Amino acid sequence: MLRITVALLLVGFASAQAQTQWSREILLGRWYSESIENAHAKRQVISDRHADGSYSIESRIYEGCVLKQRGTETGTWQFDGKVYVKHVLTISGAAVDYTYTYEFTELTDRAMRYWHRESDYKSSALKVDAQFQFPGCAIS
Length: 140
What we know:
CATH topology: Lipocalin
Number of strands: 8
Mean pLDDT: 86
Largest sheet: 8 strands, antiparallel, barrel
Helix content: 10-25%
Order of helices and strands: HEEEEEEEE
Strand order of the largest sheet: 1-2-3-4-5-6-7-8
Structural class: mainly beta
Low-confidence stretches: 1-18
CATH class: Mainly Beta
Shape: globular
Distance between the termini: 57 Å
Strand content: over 45%
Radius of gyration: 18 Å
Number of domains: 1
């Protein structure tokens, strides 16, 4: 009886572990996120990930519905089913060499949540269609 119980627990644990392994393909395409930076600023981000392992990001920061900052980022990415690594090659056209590692805590074909362990930065994004453009700057 003890062996059966232990075996069932191990199978349950393996199933739970398997559920946290996601397919690389789920990350492909366009994703959108927004966050409140402070009482007056809102950040909007559109990320595009491609099958060849490249990515591009465009971000905007609004203060009181006035565009204060716009930026771009390009680079390469890898995903092992749980951990996402991006190697940043350019920021707003300038060559750089940064690597960031994120852990996914949730990932579906519609939404993601991820965490940058070193900075404790947590974020989320929604999957959008390829033609999606930045929405207006309404402060929420």
